[in-house]
Design brief:
With about 525 residues, the chain is α/β, with parallel strands linked by helices. It has 18 helices and 15 strands. Strand 11, helix 15 and strand 12 form a beta-alpha-beta unit. It starts with a helix and ends with a strand.
C-alpha cells in the first residue's frame, strides 16, 4: 500500500491535506522508516541521508504527525497505558544512575547554598548532599552530639533538611542563639522544624540573644516564634538575654492578661532578661507562667524594682511550684508572702546583688515549708528561716555574704543563720570580693550546736578586688572550721597567697584525723 501511494504524492508540494492524510495513515513507528518508505524519486534509494530540502520538509511533517499522535495517546489519570512493542525507546541517562562515589565528588564541588538545594531534590541526593551541607556549616549531627545541639540563627535553614535525613534523631536539648541580623524566614524554618519533630521529644530549649530585640524590625515574628517554642511540647524553656535592658518594665494590668491552662507542657520556665517584662513581651511572659503547670520558676536579672516584684508575685498563683528563683531586689516580706501561698516549694534561691541592702524584716508570717535547698544572701535567708514553724533539716545551705555582714564579724552572722536549722548536710559560704580586715575574719570562739557534715568556703569572687588582703581571705577563713565541731568534710576553693599544701597543714592542725580535707586554688 505504501508503494502504491508513494507515486500519488507530489513531494514538491509543501503542505497538502491529501499528503497529510496519507502520512497519518502510517503507524507511529520510527519516523525514519516512514520517511524512507515515502522517499521521492529525487532521493537516491541507496541512502537515507536527508540532505535535500524536500526530504527535510517530509521529515518535519512526519515528525509533527508522530508527536501529535504520541500526545493524543497520553493516558488519562488512573488509566492503563498500552505500550506498543515497536515504539522507539526514549530512555535518558539520569543523574542518580551514576555511582554514589561520583555523586559525592560532584556535590562536594558545590557551594553551601547549592548543596542545600540539591538536598531537596530527592531522598538519594539528600542523603549524599546532607552530610556535606552540615559539615560546610559546622553543624553537628552525629549521634554523640544529638543530646546537645547548638544552632545559631544563620543555621536555622539547616533544620528542615536535617529532620528529613534517615539518621535524624530528635535531640533532648537545643541551645539556640539569635543574632542581630535575624530574619523572618529563619524563624519560620525553626518553627516548622519544631512542628515536625515528634511531640515532647525535645525536652530542653534555651534561647540566647545579645541584641535589643525590642528594636528589631521583626519583633512581631520574634514574639510568634517564642510562642511556637512554648507550644512545641518542651518541658523546660529558658529565655536569656545578654544585652542590657535600658527601657522600663511594665508590671501593670496583669489581671487582663489571660492564659489557658494546659496550653503547653512546660514544667520549668526561666526568664533572664528585663526585656521579657517590657510592655511588648510582658503578655508572653505572664501567659507562659499562668498557662503552664510549672514546677520550676526562675526569674533572675530581670531589673524589676521592689514595687514591681510585689505586683508580680501578688498576681501569680502556681500550685505545682516546687522550685523558685528570684532576684534580691524582691523584698523579703514580698518573698515570704509568696512562700506562704506556695507550701510545696522546697528549693529556694535568691540571686544576690552587690550593694543591695534590706532592713530586718518586721513582718513574720509563719511558714510551713519543707525546704531542702536554700541559697541566697543573709538579708533574705535569715528572714525565711525565722519564719519557718519548724527548724528545717537542710540538705544544702548556700550563703552569699555581703560586706555589711561583717558586723561584728562574718562567722558570728553565719552561726546566727545556721542556728535556725535542725541540721545542714552541706554548707557553702561565699565571701564577697571586698578586702577583709582581720577583725571581720577572726573566730570569736563560739561554736555551732547544729550538725554540719560538709563545710565549703569559696573565695572565687575575690579576684575582682585589687586589694591584697582579699587574696588571703581563704587563709583567714580557715580558722572557721573550729566553729563546726561535727564537720566531717572541709573543702576550700578560690584565690590565696598561701599554697594549697600550707592551707592543708593549717586545717589539719584544727580538725581531727577522720575529717576529709581538700583545697583547690585558682590562678
Amino acid at each position: 500500500m505504501a508503494r502504491s501511494l508513494k507515486h500519488n504524492i507530489d513531494f514538491d508540494d509543501v503542505v497538502s491535506p491529501r499528503k497529510r492524510r496519507i502520512l497519518e495513515s502510517y503507524s507511529t513507528g520510527d519516523i525514519r522508516q516512514v520517511a524512507t518508505n515515502l522517499q521521492p524519486r529525487t532521493i537516491s534509494r541507496c541512502t537515507t541521508d536527508f540532505t535535500s530540502p524536500i526530504a527535510k520538509r517530509l521529515y518535519r511533517e512526519a515528525s509533527d504527525i508522530f508527536l501529535k499522535r504520541r500526545a493524543d495517546a497520553q493516558p488519562e489519570p488512573f488509566s492503563i497505558k498500552r505500550v506498543e512493542l515497536y515504539e522507539p525507546c526514549n530512555t535518558m541517562a539520569l543523574l542518580w544512575s551514576l555511582p554514589a562515589e561520583i555523586l559525592i565528588l560532584i556535590v562536594a564541588l558545590l557551594g553551601a547554598q547549592d548543596m542545600r538545594y540539591v538536598a531537596q531534590v530527592c531522598s538519594l541526593l539528600r542523603e549524599i548532599a546532607g552530610p556535606l551541607f552540615f559539615a560546610n556549616r559546622n553543624f553537628p549531627t552525629s549521634p554523640d552530639d544529638q543530646c546537645h545541639i547548638h544552632v545559631n540563627s544563620p543555621n536555622f535553614d539547616i533544620l528542615p533538611t536535617w529532620i528529613r535525613m534517615d539518621t535524624f534523631r530528635p535531640p533532648r536539648m537545643m541551645l539556640c542563639w539569635l543574632d542581630s541580623d535575624l530574619r523572618a524566614p529563619q524563624l519560620s524554618a525553626f518553627s516548622h522544624f519544631l512542628q515536625s519533630v515528634p511531640h515532647k521529644s525535645i525536652r530542653y530549649i534555651t534561647l540566647f540573644w545579645n541584641f535589643d530585640i525590642l528594636a528589631s524590625p521583626i519583633l512581631p515574628q520574634i514574639i510568634t516564634f517564642f510562642e511556637n517554642v512554648r507550644a512545641s511540647g518542651c518541658q523546660e524553656l529558658t529565655c536569656m538575654g545578654f544585652c542590657h535592658f535600658f527601657g522600663s518594665s511594665a508590671i501593670t494590668k496583669l489581671a487582663r492578661i489571660q492564659g489557658r491552662v494546659g496550653a503547653n507542657h512546660l514544667k520549668a520556665f526561666e526568664a533572664c532578661s528585663g526585656m521579657l517584662f517590657s510592655p511588648k513581651l510582658l503578655p508572653f511572659t505572664i501567659q507562659t507562667i499562668r498557662c503552664s503547670r510549672l514546677e520550676k520558676l526562675r526569674l533572675s536579672h530581670i531589673a524589676l524594682s521592689s514595687a514591681h516584684w510585689d505586683k508580680l508575685l501578688r498576681n501569680l498563683v502556681i500550685p505545682t511550684l516546687v522550685e523558685l528563683r528570684v532576684d534580691s531586689d524582691c523584698a523579703p516580706s514580698t518573698l515570704i508572702r509568696f512562700l506562704a501561698c506556695h507550701p510545696a516549694i522546697n528549693d529556694l534561691s535568691i540571686i544576690p546583688r552587690p550593694g543591695g541592702f534590706w532592713r530586718t524584716n518586721r513582718t513574720i508570717i509563719p511558714l510551713t515549708l519543707f525546704i531542702s535547698t536554700l541559697d541566697g544572701p543573709l538579708s533574705h535567708v535569715l528572714p525565711v528561716l525565722r519564719s519557718l514553724r519548724k527548724p528545717p533539716a537542710l540538705g544544702c545551705l548556700l550563703l552569699s555574704l555581703q560586706a555589711r555582714d561583717a558586723s561584728p564579724d562574718y562567722i558570728t552572722t553565719i552561726l546566727q543563720c545556721v542556728g535556725h536549722c535542725d541540721s545542714v548536710r552541706y554548707l557553702r559560704i561565699s565571701l564577697p570580693p571586698q578586702s577583709h580586715s582581720l577583725s571581720a575574719m577572726i573566730w570569736p570562739g563560739t561554736c555551732s550546736a547544729v550538725r554540719v557534715n560538709h563545710l565549703a568556703i569559696d573565695t572565687s569572687d575575690a579576684a575582682e578586688s585589687s586589694s591584697a588582703p582579699a587574696g588571703d581571705a581563704l587563709a583567714l577563713s580557715a580558722v572557721w572550721i573550729e566553729a563546726f565541731p561535727t564537720v566531717k568534710r572541709v573543702s576550700m576553693r578560690g584565690y590565696s597567697g598561701v599554697t594549697a599544701g600550707d592551707l592543708v597543714d593549717v586545717m589539719r592542725r584544727i580538725v581531727t584525723a577522720d575529717v576529709e580535707v581538700s583545697v583547690k586554688l585558682q590562678s
